[in-house]
Amino acid sequence: MAHIIVVGNEKGGSGKSTTSMHISTALARMGWKVGALDLDLRQRSFARYLDNRRVFSEGQGLTLAGPVFRELPQVDQASLEAGENIYDRRLSAALAGLEGDMDFILIDCPGSHTRLSQVAHSLADTLVTPLNDSFVDFDLLARIDPSTGKILGPSVYSEMVWSARQVRAQAGLPPIDWLVVRNRLGPQAMHNKKKMGDALDKLSKRIGFRASAGFSERVIFRELFPRGLTLLDLGDVGVERLNISNVAARQELRDLITNLRLPGVTADF
Q1: How confident is the model at residue 189, as a pLDDT?
Q2: Mean predicted confidence (pLDDT) in 239-261
Q3: pTM above 0.90, yes or no
Q4: How is the chain split into domains, by residue range?
């Protein structure tokens, strides 16, 4: 069975597509067979990122390693069983087309609560939740007292993950390994940065996730998207000397892959 990695967060702008692209491409470059699905049927940022990669590679005559992307197939409504949800069938069919051939399947979820996202979370062996390093995004995980900073209780997204965990437990599946990834970290040791770290540390023990640093705010990520490239592809497209920022970003990716603790994977790039 392929190991399923779900990248989910119900708020947009947290770097889900960048995270999905770098994880899936890093695994593919290390020789793993990786499948990819984009469940954001409207914006399709991850799908467009991969399509940009295909177009750029073909135009430059390059062969760049990457995941095998599949669209969710269309399903005839008349073929559904009584009470069956059409999105469940589409997701199941897409996974069935990948699972036998892949070591990993990465599923990028939309930045909103949808049926597809809900089902995908229950399928996750590893759940990655990119989070901007801000209490605006922290509110997605938990409610806090604005005066004392005390955690009052889990918020809507955490409750959805809890429900997904219950579904897996009832089906006799292993528990979800949940990694919350702090993106857009500032370079300075700012007071808010420390408060976020402390709050995440307390919450992680309460609702059961691991916290990891992700990607800092860097111009390079905005420049890579139109060509469908990742940090690991720069040498393949003629960048012989990486600047300090690029070297630091590659180390962030290496640390992220290590912190995922995926079976058999060592971040040897």
Answers
A1: 55
A2: 92
A3: yes
A4: 3-260
